[in-house]
Structures are given as C-alpha cells and as structure tokens.
From TrEMBL:
Major subcellular site: membrane
Transmembrane segments: 42-65, 77-99, 131-154, 161-183, 195-216, 225-246, 258-279, 291-312, 318-335, 347-366, 386-410
Gene Ontology CC terms, in alphabetical order: plasma membrane
Stretch forming the signal peptide: 1-18
Membrane topology value: Multi-pass membrane protein
Keyword Kinase listed: no
Protein name: Ammonium transporter
Keywords: Ammonia transport, Membrane, Signal, Transmembrane, Transmembrane helix, Transport
Keyword Transport among UniProt keywords: yes
Length: 441
C-alpha cells in the first residue's frame, strides 16, 4: 500500500518535471530560431534587393526617358540614375539611422551615423536576415522614391539642383516618413497599414513631384504638342518595373513564405487588371489602344497594390487594380488638365493618385486570413479606413511643406533651380551633359 502511495505521489512530479523539461527545450528552440540566420529568407531578400535596385537606374530610367522629348532623354535618364546614386551614399551615412534607428518620440530615429555599431553577424528584428541586408533593401526604396519625383519636373531643372535636392530630401522627407510608418514611429503605433510603400514611397513621391513642379513653373512650350521620344523604351521600362516590383512587394515580407507568395501573385494580378482598365477607358475616350496608356496602366496597378500586397487576397487585387487604372487615367487626363499644372511625366497623376487609392483600399480589403496583422472594413474593422486616411493626410501635409522648404534650400545653394530659356529650348542633353541620346549619321 505504501509503495502504491509513493508511486502515486511520484507520478505527478515526474509528469511535471517532464513538462518543465519540454517547455525549456521548446523555449531554447524558439530562441535558437530567432537568433539563427535563415538561409532561405536571406537568399530571397538578397534577390529582392537586386530586383528593386534594377527598377531605378534601368526600369524607371527607361520608362521616364522614353516619355520625354528626344532632346531631354539622357537628362531624364540621368535624374533617375543619379537619384539612386545619391540615395546609396546618403542612406548609409545618415538616412538609415533616421528611418530605422532607435525611436525618438515617435518622430525620428537615431543610433549612429555611417552604420557604425552594426556587425555583419547582427540579425534584423525578424531574426532571420542580416541587418546589413535590411539596410541595403531599404536603401533601394529610398532611391526609387526620390527618382519617382523627378518625373514631374524634367526638361527644366538644373542637374546640380537635382543632386542637392535629392540628398537633402531623402534625409528631411523620406527618412522621417519611413520612420513614422515602418520604423516604429507614431503612424505605425496608430495602426497605419503600408506593406511596401503606398504612403512612404508613392504618395510621398507624387506629392513631392507636384510641389516642385508648381514651384518651378511650367515648361516654356507647355500646352503645345509634345511627343515622347520612344514609346518602345517606355514599354520596356514599364516591363522592367513590373519585373522588379516582385522584389519590391514580395520582398517586403522579408522572408520566403506564404505571405510573400501571395504578395507576388496579387502584384501581378493588379498590374494586369489595371492595364486592361486603362486601355478600355482610353479606347472609350479616344478610340485608340495606345501602348503608352497600357504601360501607364501597368504602373498604376503596381502602385495601388503596393501598400496592400501583403494584406489582401487575389479577389481584392482584381478590384484594386481595376479602380487604379481608372483613377490614374483621370489623374493624368482629367485632373492635370483641369488644374493646368505641368507634371511632365505624371508623377502625381499616377503615383500620387493611385497611391492614395491603394492606401485607402488597404483599409477596406485587408484580410486577416492572409495576414493577421491587417483587418479591414470588409472584415469588421471600419476604423482601419479612418486610420488609413489619417496616414494619407499626414503624409501629404508633411511632404508638401517639407519638400517646398528643401527645394528652396537646394535652389539657393545652386544659384537658382531652373535652366535658362535658351538651354530649355536647346535641350538639356547637350547643355547639361554635352551628349545626345542618339547620333544618327
């Protein structure tokens, strides 16, 4: 009887010990997973970083370059290329720490300059990729954002002013907004959803481009027929952007998993549907199926799906893409004509307008079955729409004011921002660079 009692006493104890031992092992496994670099995730984000880099000096440069007039083709390409170059330097000096350093009051980040203190063995917060890889990935976003803004101001801006503007703008405008949304700032705490850059990239760039275009003034021959130098280059550039955008959106998951796969698919779907929507509305309006319109529709769909890519399913991406093609078409062919501003290559008409729609759509269609971090209006969270609107409004107001200040500073530092009327008439390829895009003999 005593033996039975002792066994009965020991059995619960042994079970408890076993449970504690199992819990300790599980905790150790979790800690090991968190602190161990994931080769698959790292390989994917390395690839995604290369894809996003390709978007700016290749995809965007050709997309914008082909739409400009032949006498300004090289200058337009140079602005995209230089935007990336400037970002690559400024980001490692100070941009990264301002965007992703230790949060200061929800407004800005800061740890140290020149990436000091970051070791090659340090892992990002996800625990599966190196911090230095995250730095590089985010640097490509800064580069394309400032380059996107250049589309509104080509054919009349001094190249020296552009270089100075790009450097200051990344630090004073892009980095703070990136911190607010992605770096632990007040918009992220508010609950703003932006998977890959609806507010941080597209609304930011679109508004910045519009503000500088208004300050710089219209081109001297604005209103006259201006034909693109090469629709072929523009379509090629749009295709390169589409290709790179898979890294842009699916890469923003920072891992090779189901959400990344979903982001990849909805990105492709939205782009295709937006191109169809633009083509149809353009045919109804002008009775033509233009390749320039199709290329613009592709980009509008890519822009709109960007903030939603990691939160919505494929059915939502069909709607987001279709609406993006329509609203961006009217942003280019209606809004600009009505307000008579000279947004040269429709940086605001496409990126600003479609970016605003995409940010709103994220608040409507975010599906917790896709990503538990996002729950939109259609899934019982009406507040998310209002939160998205707050994020949009804050971004527009800050970008507009800060961009105006930065542009004024850049203009003063370079002795004026606008090229002479003779230079504008001759073309900036020869005046600013001493080269021609094509030497046909």
């Amino acid at each position: 009887m005593r033996k039975l009692l002792s066994l009965a006493t020991l059995l619960p104890l042994s079970t408890l010990w076993a449970a504690e031992e199992a819990a300790t092992e599980a905790a150790a496994d979790v800690a090991e997973k968190v602190l161990t670099l994931d080769v698959g995730n790292t390989a994917w984000v390395l690839t995604a970083t290369a894809l996003v880099m390709f978007m700016t000096p290749a995809g965007l440069a050709l997309f914008y370059g082909g739409m400009s007039r032949s006498k300004n083709l090289l200058n337009t390409i140079a602005m995209s290329v230089m935007g990336y170059i400037v970002a690559a330097v400024v980001w490692v000096v100070a941009g990264y720490t301002l965007a992703f350093g230790t949060d200061i009051g929800g407004v800005i980040g800061f740890d140290s300059l020149f990436l000091s203190g970051i070791k090659v063995t340090d892992l990002w917060a996800t625990g599966s990729i190196p911090v230095l890889l995250f730095v590089a990935f985010q640097m490509t976003f800064a580069g394309i954002t400032v380059a996107l803004a250049s589309g509104a101001i080509i054919e009349r801006l001094k190249f020296s002013t552009w270089i100075v503007f790009a450097a200051i703008w990344i630090l004073a405008v892009y980095a703070p907004i990136a911190h607010w949304v992605w770096g632990g700032g007040f918009l992220s705490k508010l609950g703003v959803l932006d998977f890959a850059g609806g507010t941080v990239v597209h609304i930011n760039a679109g508004v910045a481009g519009l503000v500088v275009a208004l300050m710089l003034g219209k081109r001297a021959d604005y209103g006259k027929a201006m034909f693109p130098s090469s629709v072929t280059l523009t379509v090629l550039g749009a295709s390169m952007l589409w290709f790179g955008w898979f890294g842009f959106n699916a890469g923003s998951e920072l891992g090779a998993d189901g959400i990344a796969a979903s982001a990849f698919l909805v990105t492709n779907t939205a782009a295709a549907v937006a191109a169809l929507a633009w083509m149809i509305i353009e045919y109804i309006t002008y009775k033509k199926f233009t390749l320039l319109g199709i290329a613009s529709g592709i980009v509008a769909g890519l822009v709109a799906i960007t903030p939603a890519a990691g939160f919505v399913d494929t059915s939502a991406s069909l709607i987001i893409g279709a609406v993006a093609g329509i609203v961006a078409f009217y942003g280019v062919n209606g809004l600009k004509k009505a307000l008579k501003y000279d947004d040269s290559l429709d940086a605001f008409g496409i990126h600003g307008v479609a970016g605003i729609w995409g940010a709103l759509a994220t608040g409507i269609f975010a599906n917790p079955e896709v990503n538990e971090l996002g729950k939109g209006l259609l899934y019982g969270n009406a507040d998310q729409v209002m939160i998205q609107i707050e994020g949009i409004v804050v971004t527009i107001i800050y970008t507009a004011i800060a961009t105006a200040i930065v542009f004024k500073i850049a203009s003063i530092l370079t002795g004026g921002a606008r090229v002479s009327s003779d230079a504008e008439s001759q073309g900036l390829d020869e005046v600013e660079h001493g080269e021609k895009a094509f030497n046909l003999r």
